[in-house]
Design brief:
It is built from ten helices and no strands. It is globular and about 45 Å long. The N and C termini lie far apart (about 35 Å).
Amino acid sequence: MLDRLYARIIGLAASPHAVIWLAVIAFAEASVFPLPPDIMLVPMVLTCRARAFRLAAICTLASVCGAVLGWCIGAFLLEYAAMPIVRFYHAEHTLLTLQDRFREWGIWIILIKGLTPIPFKFVTIASGAAHLPLMPFLMACAITRGARFFLLAALLRRFGAPIQAFIERRLPLVAGMVAVAIIVGIVALRYI
């Protein structure tokens, strides 16, 4: 089953609409969607390593645009739009804690958390809820998301063939590690 799913994702990554899906997933992940854009970025770079930095730039730009939506949700629609998302993840305490930390640490929270597997939407929504100034917020998002996606793209561009061979040989292990990273990120939200 995993082999078929992997083949399907590689097929989608090579499709003409893959860049659009990458941008949509990166945008949504920064505001409302639980899956990281890496699930599209990795196979797309492995499919065509020459486009690695272009894909990282698209992913970064879409993620920063999605972060603006997340910030707006937190700043203007916290009770109506953000709280249902927060309640869905049982992260009410996390949101309050993040708001307090944003007031204390400001953009440093974004710079650190943007590199982790913690869902970025919580960072963006909490930034808006804490009324972090929009321009420093945007700069921090661009730096941290750009660093994450460009580093990943650079590693895949440089070591793509061995990484792809490893993924294909040990697909259940890789899928399990990705699932664990996502779960750990979501569980970590409860203890921030």
